[in-house]
């Protein structure tokens, strides 16, 4: 069991470093440093790991540091995949280890294409979401390799079925919200609506040509944008508003899941803790989203908003997986009514 515990600890370490990688990626976007290093895989013609630290200044510091952390995560993932393949007796866990390695390789390629193709929106958003998916995967492997997961759990069948569906719905809703957030960042729509909780003083802003012209005049007059910037478009306003409205949608399954988790201490002492984590992260995330707008996309607040979103996503997924481990999928528990002996169906 000692070998399994060490494997679990290493998977946890890989998850933690992956979280720091997401923070580093958020800093690159928040500081608009994505093209501070215009070549890949080299850095200004030098081998990445031989680039002089003294030249890591300005945006180069954020972009090059992001690459170095990503390389470290790749190394950890390679070790994790090999370790899981050699040590694990569960084939599906070994497959997940291999999948993690393939994902981190794909993530590296997408990162390179993001630079070489000059930050195309589709690839940039895919790069951001693959990072979130990879974070989910390594965190899940950490849970699957834990001593708790390998233990036998016997709990009442009925009380957990709703929480499995609720937690999965919450995870799906948060994942969609992170897609919308990535789309908003990479289309420069974060300040397309500069006030909160209203939008240009309205609940739903007008998208007429005249209204959008007024919005652009206001953005320039208030110093949020300058005349040399491309004007804000109706598409950017739509993306921004969808992100806001979907945040309200996310609140429903996350709060509902938290309320149900808080009542399940008899089945698993950890589940009520997830209730507090989900509620706390949701409140923090909403506050950070508002502050991102009100502070004009302050770098620290914007990056923390990205990081908190990743944590909220992983917590919903881990809560769902713990629930599935305890109760299984509800569809597998549906009783089948068989005809009594001597009767016909």
Structure description:
The protein has 345 residues and is mostly helical. It has two domains: 1-151; 153-332, no CATH class. The protein contains ten helices and no strands. α6 (161-186) runs antiparallel to α8 (234-261).
Which regions are unreliable across 5 or more consecutive residues at pLDDT < 50?
Answer: 332-345
Cα distance, first to last residue? 50 Å
User: How many distinct beta strands?
Assistant: 0
Rounded to the nearest angstrom, the radius of gyration is 23 Å
Mean pLDDT over the full residue set: 92
Q: How large is the share of residues in beta strands?
A: under 5%
**Helical proportion, percent range:** 55-70%
Count of individual domains? 2
Tally of contiguous helical segments: 10
Major sheet description: none
Q: What is the chain-wise order of helices and strands?
A: HHHHHHHHHH
Shape, per Cα inertia axes: flat
Structural class: mainly alpha
What attributes does this structure have?
68% helix; flat; 2 domains; disordered C terminus; mainly alpha
Question: What's the layout of helices and strands?
Answer:
Layout: H1 2-30, H2 59-87, H3 91-116, H4 121-144, H5 147-150, H6 161-186, H7 209-221, H8 234-261, H9 270-294, H10 299-327
Helix pairs in contact: 1-2, 1-4, 1-10, 2-3, 3-4, 4-6, 4-10, 6-8, 6-10, 8-9, 9-10
Task: Kindly summarize this structure in a few lines.
The protein has 345 residues and is mainly α. It folds into 2 domains: 1-151; 153-332, no CATH class. It is built from 10 helices and no strands.
């Amino acid at each position: 069991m000692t070998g399994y515990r060490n494997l679990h600890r290493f998977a946890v370490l890989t998850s933690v470093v992956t979280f720091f990688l997401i923070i580093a990626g958020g800093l690159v976007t928040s500081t608009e440093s994505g093209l501070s290093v215009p070549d890949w895989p080299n850095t200004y013609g030098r081998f990445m790991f031989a680039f002089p630290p003294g030249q890591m200044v300005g945006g180069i510091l954020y972009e090059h540091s992001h690459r170095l952390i990503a390389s470290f995560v790749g190394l950890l993932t390679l070790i994790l995949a090999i370790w899981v393949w050699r040590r694990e007796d569960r084939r599906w866990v070994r497959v997940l280890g291999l999948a993690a390695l393939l994902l981190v390789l794909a993530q590296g390629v997408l990162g390179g294409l993001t630079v070489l193709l000059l930050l195309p929106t589709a690839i940039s958003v895919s790069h951001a979401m693959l990072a979130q998916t990879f974070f989910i995967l390594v965190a899940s492997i950490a849970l699957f390799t834990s001593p708790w997961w390998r233990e036998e759990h016997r709990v009442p069948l009925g009380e957990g079925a709703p929480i499995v569906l609720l937690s999965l719905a919450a995870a799906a809703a948060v994942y969609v919200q992170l897609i919308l957030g990535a789309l908003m960042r990479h289309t420069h729509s974060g300040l397309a609506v500069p006030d909160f909780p209203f939008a240009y003083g309205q609940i739903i802003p007008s998208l007429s040509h005249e209204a959008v012209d007024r919005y652009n005049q206001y953005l320039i007059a208030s110093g949020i944008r300058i005349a040399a910037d491309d004007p804000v478009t109706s598409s950017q306003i739509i993306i921004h508003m969808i992100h806001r409205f979907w945040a309200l949608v996310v609140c429903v399954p996350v709060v509902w899941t938290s309320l149900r988790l808080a009542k399940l201490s008899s089945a698993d002492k950890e589940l009520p803790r997830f209730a507090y984590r989900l509620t706390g992260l949701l409140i923090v995330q909403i506050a950070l989203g508002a502050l991102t707008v009100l502070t004009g996309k302050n770098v620290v607040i914007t990056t923390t908003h990205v990081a908190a979103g990743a944590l909220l996503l992983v917590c919903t997924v881990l809560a769902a997986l713990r629930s599935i481990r305890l109760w299984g999928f509800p569809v597998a528990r549906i009783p089948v009514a068989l005809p009594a002996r001597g009767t016909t169906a």
